[in-house]
Model the fold of this input.
Amino acid sequence: MRHGLVTSFLSALLLSAVPAAQAQTAQPVETAPPNVPEFKPAFPQQTRAPEVKTRTPIVVTEIASGFNKPWAIAFLPDGRFLVTEKPTGSLFIVTAAGKKSPPVAGLPKVDGRGQGGLLDVEVGPDYAKSGLIYWTYYEPREGGNGLAVARAKLVDGRKPRIEGLQVIFRMQPTLESTMHAGGRLVFTPDGKLFVTLGERSILPGRVQAQDLKSDFGKVVRINPDGSIPQDNPFVGRKDARPEIWSSGHRNILSAALDAQQRLWIVEMGPRGGDELNRPEAGKDYGWPTIGYGEEYSGEPIHKTTQAAGMEQPVYYWDPVISPSGLTLYSGALFPEWKGNLFIGGLSSQALVRLVLKDDRVVGEERLLTERKARIREVVQGPDGALYLLTDASNGRLWKLTPGAVPSGRTP
Done:
């Protein structure tokens, strides 16, 4: 394990909020040609928003390394981290100084092939009383696999373990696929739990993304014990699964609440067409009927980008950023970032910053590109710093804090 402090001073050109006059003339971050140039945005700045640049110097501190494709971070009340390893199915407790515990014992077996394994982890809202943690994983089953959500009490100590394991949700139906199961967890202040689900990628799963009798390609909303909230949009309908919140999604690996406690997601598109959405109860977000991308082969998927009864993305990327991880910044360390979205970029090897105004994207920035690292996870810590995981066989846990302003420059 290596510890070190590396400082990266990021040049400053624009303010964090983009005035309308400036936004009309500023160049976008993305200058490469789109994969599907014939598809045009439905409204101004739905894609390729003007570039903005952070004025505050950023310090990147490496807290720990040596993780095998880490996937998620959660914070324990005492400031330590929970970190998952995707392919191994291992969960670690990590101190602020970077010391890792042995793998937490007692977790269920995972299907770690492909995009599978141990994915998200969250500390229960009543952790101080119950000690419960929650996680998502690819569950091996007869006939295939599927995403599952489990919870258990974390028993701390020199050899940490869990006890009282309960599987509170299982994606249905079971399908043999190593791709596109989603897996992010988001607790809401009213005690509900959002779970994001993919459509399994292969055609038999893709065609179920708008089928309300299937969990594929959905956001679902459950209670922490796995029961169904009675105000879910499809409760009482015989032709729909009651856990479903929204439909028509491809593969959601990024999810977070905003200051109004509304859910935002960023979903993986095909070749072109990564999307930022704000899923609302009962609404259909179009996949695979509409979208802005194409097959990886270059073959078309969609005849159109718009259709009646289907929602438009707030923003889309073509070429893609390959999003994973999402947080809305509300801390005090970086005042210019207040209210901004931060997304981990895998193929884009960037921390993607979006400036919002009235639920529209008015500015975009790509941070940390000089590090050429796939960013799997981004979360805001209790201290107002951003914490990142890099997706690699020697994955790293980074902390982002503000640095000193160089002489002669005002922030």
